[in-house]
Design brief:
- The protein is an alpha+beta fold and about 600 residues long.
- It is built from 15 helices and 20 strands.
- The strands form three sheets. Strands 10, 11, 12, 13, 14, 15, 16, 17, 18, 19 and 20 form an eleven-stranded antiparallel beta sheet that branches.
- The relative contact order is 0.09.
Length: about 600
């Protein structure tokens, strides 16, 4: 129920986003029409269609992408006819009388004397709007789509997306009611009802043009994210609020963590009880340990760390989790890494085993390929930390990177509550190198970017992205945070695959570090590549997986650090050219 409310609020916040602008004319064109017969059916049609399309986009294959593209073309044509009929029914009638007559009969939107809007025509207009509406993927919609991808198409996924769309419909309905009063006042005072109709027709055609050109998911998406992301994040933070620590429970002195203790009675942590911890049963395999049960863990303090091995945020967290496991291993402290894959290649157990070895992880790792543990904890994040006390209760959680000092303080508190007499100590300061080093947050201006068509954004090659088919692409100089391909590639749901040698990927970015998840493909043969920055060898700006000349080799499917700017962080044009065919490219991340 809580998630439904959050989804609804997230949808309602879209009214503050520039992403809503292209569909506002379609809604305002219903101003002055009966709410029950006109506005409400349209908003219902928009909400239901968006929920269905978004569900298929998150979990469907290429057929869903192709079907939606045809649906968008029909919707664009339909709404263009709608706009022309508003702009000038007489002129449109001379040019395309039969088509416009069908459009007017279907939409009942021309506003001619005697025309009566019907619920069916308004619902069809809403369906067309729903096919075109591409709300900006802020934190809340991102959470819903991630859940859909992980849990598959089910009623919960659809209901959450319907709740999101209903929130947007509610705020649109309020805007329409306000707009209708303004239009009615203008008609009474100025007598310009025909001019208002023509203005709405022009606005509808402008909205159709913006959507057809993809500006609603390009320029407007970037503007929208900055305007609503903080509000959406505030809603999520209230959902997953971490209780503030009692100031008396911790004293910082010279980097040493100590606790204010009343030695006359056993120590009791101020950390609240968040509920009984779920079982960690359900893993398809365990690494570094036999399967652990709730009974075996009783009496121990347990840190459950949800991660996946190609996630840059998880990689930067690993050094701390590894250090805590080593530091407190003699204090009845157990770390369980729950590996919940994001990409299909991360479900391969051999790949996960290699990653565990590469990261020098010695604590138990549960391979949660079926997301049973993920769902038991109702988790939604990579990485996510849950601390369980000796009585089997969740007492602390943290999502994402950071908060390491507070997390370690919580570990110490629960260990002392369980009876440990360990001495106070400074927090761990792992010597992280390469991709494990902390992000340069103040200089990150680029965000995670996926190359598979299921979640691809900001594609800048002039050729249209073709799903599941080989296609020749080209790219010159993309704009900031845009990427493109050169050569012959097949773009799948999760990855882009190079079909012929000498293909490249170009990205214009602004961050200290650039990472790219790459794999050698089904053949498993090493694939050579060369990286350039602004057309030159990277030199001192090379990453951990390239040399100063930019040379490197893809040997396994994982995250590769390709750029680390050594001096002043600037906007750069990155290019990676593959000398051999077959490489699989999944996602860019930055640090």
């Amino acid at each position: 129920m809580t998630l439904l409310i959050v989804a609804y609020l997230g949808g309602a916040l879209t009214i503050l986003s520039p992403c809503i602008l292209p569909i506002l004319p379609f809604v305002f064109a219903r101003a002055g029409q009966p709410f029950i017969r006109s506005t409400l059916p349209m908003l219902i049609g928009m909400s239901v269609t968006f929920a269905m399309v978004a569900t298929l986009a998150a979990v469907g294959g290429s057929w869903a992408i192709n079907a939606n593209e045809y649906g968008r073309l029909v919707a664009i044509l339909l709404l263009a006819i709608f706009g022309v009929s508003l702009l000038s029914p007489s002129i449109a009638g001379v040019i395309t009388q039969p088509v416009v007559d069908v459009g007017n009969k279907l939409l009942n939107a021309s506003g001619k004397p005697g025309s009566i809007p019907t619920a069916a025509s308004s619902f069809i207009l809403g369906v067309a709007t729903g096919l075109l509406w591409a709300p900006c993927a802020g934190p809340i919609l991102g959470l819903l789509l991630t859940g859909a991808a992980l849990q598959g198409a089910n009623l919960q996924t659809t209901f959450l997306l319907i709740a999101y769309a209903a929130g947007a419909a509610t705020s649109l309905a309020i805007a329409l009611l306000v707009g209708a009063k303004i239009f009615a006042g203008m008609k009474r005072s100025l007598g310009i009802s025909e001019r208002i109709r023509q203005m709405l027709g022009a606005a509808v055609l402008a909205g159709v043009a913006v959507i057809a050109l993809g500006l609603d998911t390009g320029l407007l998406a970037r503007l929208s994210y900055t305007s609503t992301a903080s509000l959406e994040q505030a809603v999520l933070d209230r959902l997953h609020r971490t209780p503030a620590a009692d100031p008396s429970s911790e004293i910082a002195s010279n980097g040493i963590m100590t606790a204010a203790v009343d030695t006359s009675r056993p120590f009791q942590s101020n950390l609240p009880v968040e509920g009984l911890a779920p079982s960690v049963d359900g893993a398809v395999e365990w690494l570094n340990s036999p399967p652990l049960t709730t009974e075996q863990l009783r009496g121990k303090v347990v840190l459950v760390d949800f991660w996946t091995y190609s996630c840059i945020n998880c990689i930067r967290t690993v050094p701390y989790v590894r250090a805590w496991a080593e530091k407190y291993k003699d204090q009845d402290f157990v770390v369980i890494g729950v590996h919940a894959p994001e990409f299909a290649f991360e479900k391969k157990i051999d790949n996960a085993k290699t990653a565990v070895e590469d990261f020098k992880i010695g604590y138990p790792v549960a391979i949660d390929n079926d997301y049973k543990i993920w769902r038991a904890f109702e988790n939604s994040y990579w990485p996510a930390h849950y601390l369980i006390d000796a009585n089997g209760q969740i007492r602390y959680h943290h999502f994402g990177e950071g908060n390491y000092r507070q997390t370690e303080q919580a570990i110490q508190d629960l260990l002392r509550e369980a009876g440990s007499e360990m001495a106070a100590s400074a927090p761990v300061t792992p010597d992280a190198k390469g991709a494990e080093a902390s992000a340069d947050l103040k200089n990150i201006r680029s965000g995670e970017t996926y190359l598979g068509y299921k979640r691809a954004t900001s594609f800048a090659s002039p050729e249209s992205l073709r799903a599941d088919g080989a296609n020749a692409y080209s790219i010159d100089e993309p704009g900031l945070n845009k990427w493109g391909l050169s050569g012959t590639w097949t773009i799948g749901a999760e990855q882009a695959v190079l079909d012929k040698p000498d293909g490249s990927i170009v990205y214009r970015f602004s961050a200290r570090d650039l990472h790219l998840v790459l794999g050698p493909g089904a053949a498993g043969k090493p694939i050579r590549f060369k990286v350039t920055i602004d057309g030159k060898a990277p030199g001192p700006n090379h990453g951990a997986d390239t040399d100063a000349d930019g040379h490197g080799t893809v040997t396994s499917t994982k995250l590769y650090q390709l750029v680390r700017q050594s001096g002043h962080v600037e906007k750069r044009t990155f290019e990676i050219r593959f000398l051999d065919q077959g490489v699989e490219a999944y996602a860019f991340t930055f640090g």
